Amino acid sequence: MKLNDVREFWSRFGREETGQDTIEYGLLLAFIALAGAAMFLGMSSSEHTLWSVANNNLAAGNAGS
User: Fold this and answer.
1) What is the pTM of this model?
2) Is 16 left (phi over 0), alpha (psi -120 to 50) or beta?
3) Among the listed residues 62, 60, 55, 11, the one whose alpha carbon sits nearest the alpha carbon of residue 47
4) pLDDT band for position 16 (50/70/90)?
5) Would you tell me how many other CB atoms lie within 10 Å of the CB of residue 35?
6) Tens digits of per-residue pLDDT, 31-58?
7) What's the number of CA atoms in the CB half-sphere (13 Å) around residue 58?
8) Which residue in 46, 48, 25, 28 sits closest to 36, CA to CA?
9) Which alpha helices (DSSP H) does the chain contain, by range?
């Protein structure tokens, strides 16, 4: 591979914009996935509390009947 071929490749690579939209959508999708994972991890303790309260209320209802 000649030096001119490498220069031509990088010159053409800088001018082309055909894959730019795909990369932007990929980055957006990655951001949404990371935000969803962070939200899921943040909600895990409150979800556990919610199900514990529901379970305790059901157990108390069954004990009374």
Assistant:
1) 0.47
2) beta
3) 55
4) confident
5) 10
6) 999 999 988 887 777 778 888 888 998 8
7) 6
8) 28
9) 3-15, 20-64
